[in-house]
Each structure stands twice: as structure tokens, then as C-alpha cells.
Amino acid sequence: MNALTKVLEYIWEEKGFIYTTFGNISSTLLGALFWFILASILQVRDYGEVNYLIALAVIPASIASLGLNTVVVTYLAKGEEKIVWEADTIALFSGVIAGLILFGTLWIASLIVAALVFFNMSIAEILGRKYYKEYALATILQRAIQIISSIILYLEIGILGILIGYFLGPMLMSYRFLGNMKNLTFRIDGLRNKINFMLHSYGQNLVGSFSTYLDKIIIGGLFGLYSLGLYQLGFQFLMLLAAIPGSLYNYLLPEESSGVNRARIKIIGIISSLVLALMAIFIAPYIVNLLFPNFIESIRLIQIMSLAIIPLTITSLANARLFGEERSKYVFLGGIIYVLTMVAGLVVLGLYLGDVGLAIAILFAQSSRALYLSSKVGIL
Predict the structure, then answer these.
(1) How far is CA 79 from the centre of its chain?
(2) What are the residues whose beta carbons fall under 8 Å from the beta carbon of 344, sequence distance 6 or more?
(3) Residue 102's closest CA among 137, 68, 165, 57?
(4) Mutual angle of helices 195-209 and 328-353, in 10-degree steps
């Protein structure tokens, strides 16, 4: 009991971690609620289609980000103020150009691309300044706006309404980025000196996007939207659990960049991931049977993918330290390992083991990346 009390007291002293965790968990819970509501009212195939269309919009947004958000978090935490204006200027042009390229094929996707780029830059500035309370508010409000508007518009105009709502949330909460438009500058001396770091962080951002959305495109194309619908419900459970490693990364990156090591928080994060994985395995059947009777076939996928929270937590700790030490090359290589093993696993295991093989592929890919990164840096 004394040990637990000490742990709780230590966590309470880390206000920044509390705010980032609260923001991430609240945003993730709201996001999960949104997708779970859709799962309860949509057919499995329609559920897969929505995720497929969103994936087609999010990946170009990651391409347009150019790794600038990670650059801002890392170097603004070190006191380099003008890096924000330089990065926002480039992000404005890249976001608009990426949106215009998509405008002729799927106009709402083009708007989502720009909104996501602008929102990510706003969040990067907030984290770089260590405004953790503002981070919590911004992420929660973004998700709340997204959910409410998507559901209301879906009831009016169908799937298109979901996509419009997906645009409104991040766009309305891009206030810091939009406020910086008066500080636009075409002098990029600060960024020019960080080109290697920017390229590595860009690669990692792409990998992060591919690892979250490329699977939807592959599964939807090879195995059909029904399989994608089953898989996505399992993946949504994993993303719900991923609030813990996400909070660890968002909190630890500016801390590590400032030269501060939070070892006890890391230990707490790893233990939490173990507990969450076990809980998910046991309660998943009850939740699915009660709330999502159309998705009974996804129970085993949920249980398998829930285990991936453990290597995902290790990856988050390693990435925060590597970026903080400006050793971004290893983060990028770890991401490449994940994407390659994920793609190969989805194709091979999906063909031989069916839908369960898709879940195993994600667990294997997460474990492969965690093993590589932990061999390059001491996560504690």
C-alpha cells in the first residue's frame, strides 16, 4: 500500500504528464466512442468503407507534414523560437499544395489533408512550449467537435457527413497555426541547419501514418471491406489502449529534449501496458457480445492485437529518448522495420490464416520494431 501511495504521489507531482495523459486518454476515449457508435449503426462493410476513405486522406497529410511538427517540438523545447515561424510557413504551402492535388478526385479529402497538417503544427507548438494543460484542452475539443459534427452530418447526408466532420475538428482547433500567419517568413536558416533531423523525423512521420492507415488500404484492396471492418474494430481497441504510450511519448519528448530523464514515469508506463493488455483480453468477448453483435468474428482479433500495446509502449519510450538526443536515424529505421514487417505479415498471414492472421501481423510488426529500438537505446 505504501508503494502504491508513493507511485500516486509521484505521478501527481508530474503535472505535465497528468495533463498530456488526460488529454490523450480523453481524446482517445472520445475517438473510440465515435467509432464504436458507428460500429453499432453501420454494417460491417460500410464501417470498413469509412475507414478506407479516411486512410486515403490521412496518408497524404503525413506526406505534406515534412516532419516539421517533430522539429518544432524538439527545438522549441530547446528555446529556438523562430523555428515555429519557419516551419509553419513551409507547412502552409505543403498542406495547401497537397490538398489541391487531391481536390479533383475527392474534394473532402483535400480539406482533411490541409486541416490535419495545420492542426499537427498547432499541437507541436503547444508541446514545444510545454503548455501541457492547453494540449489536453486542444486535443479533447478537437475530438469532441469532430465526433459531434460527424454524427449530426451523417444523420443528414450519410458517409460524406462523417468525412466533413472529420475535417471540422482539426481545422477549428488549428488556432495557433492560423494565428502565426502574421509571422510568416521565407528565411529558413534555422531549418536549413536541421535538415538531417527533419528528414529523419519526416520519415518517421510517414512511417507512423503508414503504420496506422496503410493497413486499411491493403486489407480493403486484398481481402475486402468486410474483413477490413472486422480488423478495424480490433485495431480500434488497440488505439484505445495506445493512449498510454501516446501520452508517454508526448510528455517525454520535450523532457528528453531538455535533458531531463523521467525513469519512474517510464516504469509506470510499462507496467500499465501489461495490465491493460490482460484486461482487454478478458473483457473483449463481453464488450463485443453486448455492444457489437455484428462483429462477433472480431473477438479473437481484438485479443491478439491488444497484446501489441506492450511493444508499442517500449517503442514510444525509445523514440522519445532517441529524438530528444537527436538520434533520429534509428527512429526512422525502426519505423521502416515496422512497415515492412506489417505489409509482409498482412499479405502472407492474411492469405494463410485469414482475419486472425491480420491481427498476428500487427503484433509481430510491433514486436519487431520494439526489439530493434530497445537494442539501440536504454529506454529507462
Answers:
(1) 26
(2) 361
(3) 57
(4) 20
Q: Rounded distance, CA 121 to CA 287, Å?
A: 36
DSSP 239-304: HHHTHHHHHHHHHHHHHHHTT---HHHHHHHHHHHHHHHHHHHHHHHHHHHHH-GGGGGGHHHHHH
For helices 2-13 and 263-291, what crossing angle results, to 10°?
A: 100
For residue 27, what is its C-alpha cell?
481524446
Tell me the residue range of the domain where 124 lies. Answer: 2-376
**Could you tell me which of 51, 75, 59, 184 has the C-alpha nearest to residue 117?**
59
- Distance CA(24)–CA(250), nearest Å, equals 9
Please list, in sequence order, all residues whose beta carbon lies within 8 angstroms of the beta carbon of residue 244, skipping any fewer than 6 positions away.
21, 25, 269, 272, 273, 276, 309, 313
Residues in the chain with pLDDT values less than 70? 1-28, 79, 103-105, 188-192, 200-201, 204, 208-209, 211, 247, 250-251, 253-264, 378-380
Report how far residue 180's alpha carbon sits from residue 84's, in angstroms, rounded to the nearest whole number.
8
Please give the tally of structural domains in the chain. Answer: 1
φ, ψ of residue 188 in degrees (nearest 5): -120, 40
What are the DSSP E strand ranges found in 10-163?
none
